[in-house]
Amino acid sequence: MSDPTWDLYQSLHxxxxxxxxxxxxxxxxxTQPTIGRHIEALEQQLGAPLFLRSPRGLTPTDLAHxxxxxxxxxxxxxxxxxxxxxxxxxSEKGSxxxxxxxxxxxxxxxxxxxxFMEQHPEIAIELVLSNKIEDLSRRDADIAxxxxxxxxxxxVARKVGMLGVGFYATQAYLDRRGAPESLEDLxxxxxxxxxxxxxxxxxxxxxxxxxxxTRDIFSFRTDDDAAxxxxxRAGMGIGGVQHQIARRDGLVPVLxxxxxxxxxxxxxxxxxxxxSRRMRLMxxxxxxxxxxxxxxx
Length: 297
What we know:
7-stranded mixed β-sheet; Arc Repressor Mutant, subunit A; WH_DNA-bd_sf; WH-like_DNA-bd_sf; two-stranded antiparallel ribbon; alpha/beta; LysR family transcriptional regulator; D-Maltodextrin-Binding Protein, domain 2; DNA-binding
Protein backbone atom coordinates (compact mmCIF):
# COMPACT_ATOMS: atom_id res chain seq x y z
CA MET A 1 0.00 0.00 0.00
CA SER A 2 1.35 3.44 -0.90
CA ASP A 3 2.15 6.05 1.71
CA PRO A 4 -0.58 8.61 2.48
CA THR A 5 -0.36 11.73 0.33
CA TRP A 6 0.14 15.24 1.65
CA ASP A 7 -3.37 16.06 0.43
CA LEU A 8 -4.82 13.60 2.95
CA TYR A 9 -2.65 14.95 5.74
CA GLN A 10 -3.72 18.50 4.86
CA SER A 11 -7.34 17.50 5.39
CA LEU A 12 -6.49 15.87 8.72
CA HIS A 13 -4.67 19.04 9.79
CA UNK A 14 -7.67 21.15 8.78
CA UNK A 15 -10.08 18.97 10.81
CA UNK A 16 -7.81 19.04 13.86
CA UNK A 17 -7.50 22.82 13.61
CA UNK A 18 -11.17 23.57 13.02
CA UNK A 19 -12.83 20.73 14.96
CA UNK A 20 -15.32 19.63 12.30
CA UNK A 21 -15.58 18.36 8.73
CA UNK A 22 -17.71 21.32 7.66
CA UNK A 23 -15.27 23.92 8.99
CA UNK A 24 -12.33 22.00 7.50
CA UNK A 25 -14.06 21.90 4.12
CA UNK A 26 -14.46 25.68 4.16
CA UNK A 27 -10.84 26.28 5.12
CA UNK A 28 -9.57 23.94 2.39
CA UNK A 29 -12.04 25.00 -0.27
CA UNK A 30 -13.31 21.42 -0.69
CA THR A 31 -16.68 19.78 -0.13
CA GLN A 32 -17.48 18.17 3.19
CA PRO A 33 -17.85 14.68 1.64
CA THR A 34 -14.38 15.06 0.09
CA ILE A 35 -12.84 15.87 3.50
CA GLY A 36 -14.69 12.88 4.95
CA ARG A 37 -13.30 10.59 2.27
CA HIS A 38 -9.79 11.93 2.91
CA ILE A 39 -10.05 11.08 6.61
CA GLU A 40 -11.44 7.61 5.88
CA ALA A 41 -8.68 6.92 3.33
CA LEU A 42 -6.03 8.06 5.80
CA GLU A 43 -7.47 5.84 8.53
CA GLN A 44 -7.41 2.85 6.18
CA GLN A 45 -3.81 3.49 5.20
CA LEU A 46 -2.69 4.03 8.81
CA GLY A 47 -4.68 1.03 10.01
CA ALA A 48 -6.29 2.82 12.95
CA PRO A 49 -9.07 5.37 13.60
CA LEU A 50 -8.23 9.05 13.81
CA PHE A 51 -11.54 10.20 15.26
CA LEU A 52 -14.33 8.81 17.38
CA ARG A 53 -17.68 9.64 15.78
CA SER A 54 -20.70 10.57 17.90
CA PRO A 55 -23.82 12.78 17.55
CA ARG A 56 -21.80 15.54 19.24
CA GLY A 57 -19.15 15.48 16.53
CA LEU A 58 -15.60 14.21 16.12
CA THR A 59 -13.23 13.45 18.99
CA PRO A 60 -9.54 13.01 18.01
CA THR A 61 -7.95 9.72 19.04
CA ASP A 62 -4.50 9.41 20.59
CA LEU A 63 -3.13 8.69 17.12
CA ALA A 64 -4.53 11.96 15.78
CA HIS A 65 -3.13 13.87 18.75
CA UNK A 66 0.29 12.30 18.20
CA UNK A 67 0.30 13.50 14.58
CA UNK A 68 -0.82 17.06 15.34
CA UNK A 69 2.60 18.60 16.05
CA UNK A 70 4.10 16.98 12.94
CA UNK A 71 1.21 18.23 10.82
CA UNK A 72 1.66 21.78 12.12
CA UNK A 73 5.33 21.67 11.12
CA UNK A 74 4.44 20.25 7.70
CA UNK A 75 1.75 22.89 7.21
CA UNK A 76 4.12 25.72 8.19
CA UNK A 77 6.82 24.38 5.87
CA UNK A 78 4.40 24.04 2.96
CA UNK A 79 3.06 27.56 3.51
CA UNK A 80 6.62 28.94 3.70
CA UNK A 81 7.52 27.13 0.47
CA UNK A 82 4.48 28.66 -1.23
CA UNK A 83 5.51 32.14 -0.05
CA UNK A 84 9.08 31.60 -1.21
CA UNK A 85 7.83 30.46 -4.60
CA UNK A 86 5.45 33.41 -4.92
CA UNK A 87 8.21 35.73 -6.08
CA UNK A 88 11.86 35.73 -7.08
CA UNK A 89 14.34 36.61 -4.36
CA UNK A 90 15.34 39.87 -6.03
CA SER A 91 11.85 40.99 -7.03
CA GLU A 92 9.23 43.18 -5.36
CA LYS A 93 6.54 40.59 -5.90
CA GLY A 94 5.21 37.76 -3.75
CA SER A 95 3.92 37.46 -0.20
CA UNK A 96 5.22 38.22 3.29
CA UNK A 97 3.74 36.70 6.46
CA UNK A 98 3.93 38.88 9.58
CA UNK A 99 3.30 37.73 13.15
CA UNK A 100 2.26 40.19 15.85
CA UNK A 101 0.24 40.44 19.02
CA UNK A 102 -3.48 41.11 18.72
CA UNK A 103 -3.26 44.73 19.88
CA UNK A 104 -0.30 45.55 17.64
CA UNK A 105 -2.00 43.89 14.68
CA UNK A 106 -5.32 45.65 15.20
CA UNK A 107 -4.26 49.05 16.51
CA UNK A 108 -0.77 49.75 15.16
CA UNK A 109 0.20 47.72 12.09
CA UNK A 110 -2.59 48.82 9.71
CA UNK A 111 -1.36 52.43 9.72
CA UNK A 112 2.24 51.29 9.19
CA UNK A 113 1.44 48.73 6.48
CA UNK A 114 -0.85 51.02 4.47
CA UNK A 115 2.11 53.01 3.21
CA PHE A 116 4.03 49.85 2.34
CA MET A 117 1.18 48.48 0.25
CA GLU A 118 0.90 51.78 -1.59
CA GLN A 119 4.62 51.68 -2.46
CA HIS A 120 4.76 47.94 -3.25
CA PRO A 121 1.35 46.90 -4.65
CA GLU A 122 2.58 43.50 -5.89
CA ILE A 123 3.65 42.31 -2.44
CA ALA A 124 0.81 40.55 -0.62
CA ILE A 125 0.73 40.70 3.17
CA GLU A 126 -0.40 37.83 5.41
CA LEU A 127 -1.01 38.83 9.04
CA VAL A 128 -1.21 36.26 11.84
CA LEU A 129 -2.27 37.67 15.20
CA SER A 130 -1.61 35.87 18.45
CA ASN A 131 -0.14 36.65 21.86
CA LYS A 132 1.96 33.51 21.65
CA ILE A 133 5.42 33.78 20.12
CA GLU A 134 5.42 32.37 16.59
CA ASP A 135 8.36 30.11 15.71
CA LEU A 136 10.35 31.94 13.03
CA SER A 137 12.81 29.06 12.75
CA ARG A 138 9.88 26.85 11.69
CA ARG A 139 8.64 29.62 9.38
CA ASP A 140 5.23 29.99 11.04
CA ALA A 141 5.84 33.56 9.91
CA ASP A 142 8.53 35.38 7.94
CA ILE A 143 8.80 38.49 10.11
CA ALA A 144 7.63 39.05 13.68
CA UNK A 145 6.92 42.09 15.82
CA UNK A 146 7.82 41.05 19.35
CA UNK A 147 7.48 42.68 22.74
CA UNK A 148 10.54 40.90 24.12
CA UNK A 149 14.10 40.24 23.01
CA UNK A 150 14.14 37.30 20.54
CA UNK A 151 15.90 34.24 21.95
CA UNK A 152 15.76 31.88 18.98
CA UNK A 153 18.99 31.41 17.07
CA UNK A 154 19.63 32.30 13.42
CA UNK A 155 17.50 35.45 13.52
CA VAL A 156 18.07 38.97 12.26
CA ALA A 157 16.58 41.21 14.94
CA ARG A 158 16.44 44.96 15.52
CA LYS A 159 15.28 46.69 18.67
CA VAL A 160 13.15 49.65 17.63
CA GLY A 161 12.34 51.18 21.00
CA MET A 162 10.36 50.84 24.19
CA LEU A 163 6.59 50.55 24.31
CA GLY A 164 4.98 52.03 27.42
CA VAL A 165 1.72 50.94 29.05
CA GLY A 166 -0.28 52.72 31.74
CA PHE A 167 -3.74 52.92 33.26
CA TYR A 168 -6.29 54.95 31.29
CA ALA A 169 -10.01 55.74 31.29
CA THR A 170 -12.37 58.08 29.48
CA GLN A 171 -13.07 61.50 30.92
CA ALA A 172 -16.76 60.56 31.10
CA TYR A 173 -15.98 57.56 33.33
CA LEU A 174 -13.82 59.67 35.66
CA ASP A 175 -16.52 62.36 35.82
CA ARG A 176 -19.02 59.71 36.97
CA ARG A 177 -16.84 57.76 39.39
CA GLY A 178 -14.11 60.17 40.33
CA ALA A 179 -10.38 59.76 39.73
CA PRO A 180 -8.57 57.31 42.03
CA GLU A 181 -5.72 58.90 43.96
CA SER A 182 -3.98 55.66 44.95
CA LEU A 183 -3.85 52.00 43.98
CA GLU A 184 -6.00 51.25 47.03
CA ASP A 185 -8.73 53.48 45.56
CA LEU A 186 -9.07 51.09 42.64
CA UNK A 187 -11.09 48.82 44.96
CA UNK A 188 -14.01 51.18 44.30
CA UNK A 189 -13.63 51.23 40.52
CA UNK A 190 -14.36 49.02 37.54
CA UNK A 191 -11.03 47.53 36.48
CA UNK A 192 -10.76 45.86 33.07
CA UNK A 193 -8.45 42.86 32.66
CA UNK A 194 -7.91 39.21 31.86
CA UNK A 195 -10.24 36.25 32.40
CA UNK A 196 -8.82 32.73 32.02
CA UNK A 197 -5.50 33.28 30.28
CA UNK A 198 -3.15 34.87 32.79
CA UNK A 199 -0.80 37.07 30.74
CA UNK A 200 2.91 37.46 31.52
CA UNK A 201 3.07 39.81 34.51
CA UNK A 202 6.82 40.02 35.05
CA UNK A 203 6.71 43.72 34.16
CA UNK A 204 4.39 44.35 37.13
CA UNK A 205 6.54 42.76 39.82
CA UNK A 206 7.89 46.14 40.96
CA UNK A 207 4.45 47.73 41.26
CA UNK A 208 3.06 47.75 44.78
CA UNK A 209 -0.50 46.54 44.20
CA UNK A 210 -2.55 46.26 47.40
CA UNK A 211 -3.45 42.64 46.62
CA UNK A 212 -2.33 39.85 44.26
CA UNK A 213 -2.99 40.41 40.55
CA THR A 214 -5.53 37.71 39.74
CA ARG A 215 -8.73 37.69 37.70
CA ASP A 216 -10.70 38.49 40.87
CA ILE A 217 -9.54 42.13 40.89
CA PHE A 218 -11.23 42.75 37.52
CA SER A 219 -14.91 43.66 37.23
CA PHE A 220 -14.84 43.26 33.44
CA ARG A 221 -12.86 40.20 32.31
CA THR A 222 -11.85 39.15 28.83
CA ASP A 223 -8.77 37.50 27.34
CA ASP A 224 -9.25 39.44 24.11
CA ASP A 225 -6.95 42.48 24.29
CA ALA A 226 -8.91 44.33 21.62
CA ALA A 227 -12.11 43.83 23.61
CA UNK A 228 -10.40 45.25 26.69
CA UNK A 229 -9.47 48.44 24.86
CA UNK A 230 -12.96 48.70 23.36
CA UNK A 231 -14.41 48.49 26.86
CA UNK A 232 -12.09 51.25 28.08
CA ARG A 233 -13.01 53.43 25.09
CA ALA A 234 -16.71 52.85 25.85
CA GLY A 235 -16.24 54.29 29.33
CA MET A 236 -16.76 51.00 31.19
CA GLY A 237 -13.76 51.38 33.46
CA ILE A 238 -10.01 51.67 33.92
CA GLY A 239 -7.47 49.46 32.18
CA GLY A 240 -4.00 49.17 30.71
CA VAL A 241 -3.41 50.81 27.32
CA GLN A 242 -0.33 51.63 25.27
CA HIS A 243 0.48 55.32 25.68
CA GLN A 244 0.38 56.05 21.94
CA ILE A 245 -3.04 54.42 21.52
CA ALA A 246 -4.41 56.19 24.58
CA ARG A 247 -3.25 59.62 23.42
CA ARG A 248 -4.63 59.00 19.93
CA ASP A 249 -8.05 58.12 21.39
CA GLY A 250 -8.16 60.97 23.91
CA LEU A 251 -8.05 58.71 26.97
CA VAL A 252 -7.06 60.18 30.33
CA PRO A 253 -4.07 58.78 32.28
CA VAL A 254 -4.90 57.31 35.69
CA LEU A 255 -2.34 56.89 38.51
CA UNK A 256 0.49 57.60 36.10
CA UNK A 257 3.03 57.82 38.94
CA UNK A 258 1.90 54.56 40.55
CA UNK A 259 1.27 52.26 37.57
CA UNK A 260 3.44 52.12 34.47
CA UNK A 261 5.70 49.65 32.71
CA UNK A 262 7.60 49.35 29.47
CA UNK A 263 8.20 46.55 26.98
CA UNK A 264 11.01 46.22 24.46
CA UNK A 265 9.83 46.26 20.85
CA UNK A 266 11.76 44.16 18.31
CA UNK A 267 11.43 43.35 14.61
CA UNK A 268 12.84 39.90 13.77
CA UNK A 269 13.13 37.56 10.80
CA UNK A 270 15.06 34.38 9.98
CA UNK A 271 18.54 35.11 8.67
CA UNK A 272 17.93 32.93 5.60
CA UNK A 273 15.47 35.57 4.36
CA UNK A 274 18.04 38.37 4.17
CA UNK A 275 18.57 37.67 0.48
CA SER A 276 14.90 38.18 -0.38
CA ARG A 277 14.26 41.74 -1.51
CA ARG A 278 10.60 41.80 -0.48
CA MET A 279 11.44 40.47 3.00
CA ARG A 280 14.18 43.05 3.43
CA LEU A 281 11.88 45.82 2.21
CA MET A 282 9.24 44.81 4.75
CA UNK A 283 11.77 44.39 7.57
CA UNK A 284 13.22 47.85 6.96
CA UNK A 285 9.75 49.39 6.62
CA UNK A 286 8.64 47.92 9.95
CA UNK A 287 11.82 49.10 11.67
CA UNK A 288 11.26 52.64 10.40
CA UNK A 289 7.51 52.58 11.03
CA UNK A 290 7.72 51.36 14.60
CA UNK A 291 10.63 53.69 15.30
CA UNK A 292 8.42 56.62 14.30
CA UNK A 293 5.40 55.24 16.17
CA UNK A 294 7.30 54.70 19.42
CA UNK A 295 8.92 58.11 19.15
CA UNK A 296 5.61 59.95 19.20
CA UNK A 297 5.03 62.03 22.31
